[in-house]
Specification:
Helices cover 42% and strands 17% of the residues. The chain has 408 residues and is of the alpha/beta class.
């Protein structure tokens, strides 16, 4: 059948997204990676553009994607076991690197068990499918990631069984908990550890205290679930992210290998029973092939590096660059959202000006992300900078110099 009528309908929908300011820009294609040289960190080339760019929009906080040990581990695992598993996990698609990575990430997070998925997105969906019932009530932070919101929808959570609390507002969370109907069997509080648009951290200790206060009200208790994809590996003396920063561990921790660790994949760490429930009930685990052995071997090596003297040095260097950049923003009289995380949100508070600033950085060889309405509320338009361990002091000064050249 011809697609002409569907194409016309989809064109109208895409045009509507553009009119609302929600359409994605054309994707730039990276064609080359230029390693660090002297005082200069890595640079990138884009298709159709001769300029060399600094990336200030990468999630690769520890800069491990080009680490020779990760590349070697992926290569050795591939030569030993092949490029793909050929089956889902429960039909003999589980290879030694899958099991080793699950054991390694459980140790790293400090939980008894863990299960790996193809991404943190599919992990969140799998967790929701595994722990939700018709008698489960979900409470989430107002700024939770799309994967958490989508997970609740996939799990079939009705509007009568969920609530949203104002961002990081413990009084509002307490109000939501007080309002949970008594007939509910279990309550799940779900939140990001680090919020990707702002770089601020959830008040985990406050969330846990409220959960404990209400735990006895429900037969299955109150369970806390944190997605710390932007936190784990990215900050803290030992790279444990929001867990380390707050000194508090939620019941279930979701994370990714695709950000600080520079590879692919996601995971959930919890009790052995929760992990077995994921294996038995999470469709996003059961019905798809797992990560390649190359991804698993590289991710396990990344965990080892993070726990080594080299990893601590990378984290310390990253912290220094974040502090340098934040000092520079303050010296220029610019407004940002405070915090220790390498996501630095520069508040511009105007959509057209944000677009102009993104273009200004691009024209001067710096790749950044602009967040404008309706992605963020009017008046909260920002430039999101993301620092990583490969950025040098000279790189940070160069970016600050570009910012200083922008009028206003």
């Amino acid at each position: 059948m011809p697609l002409n009528r569907l194409d016309r309908a989809l064109t109208r929908e895409i045009d509507a997204l553009a009119a609302e300011g929600r359409a994605k820009a054309p994707e730039r294609v990276i064609t080359a990676y230029l390693p660090s040289a002297g005082e200069r960190g890595p640079r990138y080339r884009l298709r159709g553009n001769p300029r060399e760019f600094i990336r200030m929009n990468s999630n690769s906080y520890l800069s491990l994607a080009h680490h020779p040990e990760l590349i070697r581990a992926a290569d050795e695992a591939t030569h030993r076991l092949g490029v793909g598993p050929g089956a889902v996990r429960f039909i003999d698609g589980t290879f030694e690197p899958h099991a080793a990575l699950e054991e390694g990430v459980a140790r790293f997070i400090g939980k008894p068990a863990a299960k790996i998925f193809n991404s943190a997105y599919t992990t969140n969906c799998g967790v929701a499918l595994a722990i939700s019932t018709p008698h489960t009530y979900w409470i989430g932070d107002q700024l939770n990631h799309n994967s958490i919101i989508r997970a609740m929808r996939i799990a079939g959570v009705p509007g009568t069984h969920k609530a949203i609390y104002a961002h990081n507002d413990m009084d509002d969370l307490a109000r939501c908990l007080d309002a949970v109907p008594e007939a509910v069997e279990r309550v799940v509080i779900v939140f990001d550890g680090i919020f990707s648009m702002r770089g601020d951290c959830a008040p985990i200790e406050g969330i846990q205290a409220l959960a404990e206060r209400h735990h006895a009200r429900f037969p299955d208790g109150v369970i806390t679930v944190m997605d710390d994809s932007h936190g784990i590996g990215a900050f803290g003396a030992r790279g444990r992210g929001a867990l380390e920063h707050t000194g508090t561990a939620p019941d279930i921790v979701v994370g990714t290998f695709g950000k600080a660790f520079g590879v692919n994949g996601g995971f959930a760490a919890a009790s052995p029973t929760v992990v077995e429930a994921l294996r038995q009930k999470a469709d996003t685990y059961i019905y798809t092939n797992p990560l390649s052995v190359a991804d698993c071997a590289a991710a396990l090596k990344a965990l080892e590096i993070c726990d080594s003297p080299e990893g601590r040095q990378r984290l310390a260097h990253l912290g220094e660059r974040v502090a340098q950049f934040r000092r520079g923003i303050g010296a220029l009289g610019r407004e940002s959202i405070d915090g220790p995380h390498p996501i630095v949100a520069l508040l511009v508070r105007d959509t057209p000006r944000t677009h102009r600033l993104v273009r200004h950085f691009f024209d001067h060889g710096v790749l950044v992300v602009g967040l404008t309405f309706p992605v963020v509320p009017r008046g909260e338009e920002t430039i999101r900078f993301q620092l990583n361990a490969a950025h040098t002091a000279a790189d940070v000064e160069e970016v600050l110099g570009v910012l200083a050249q922008f009028p206003g």
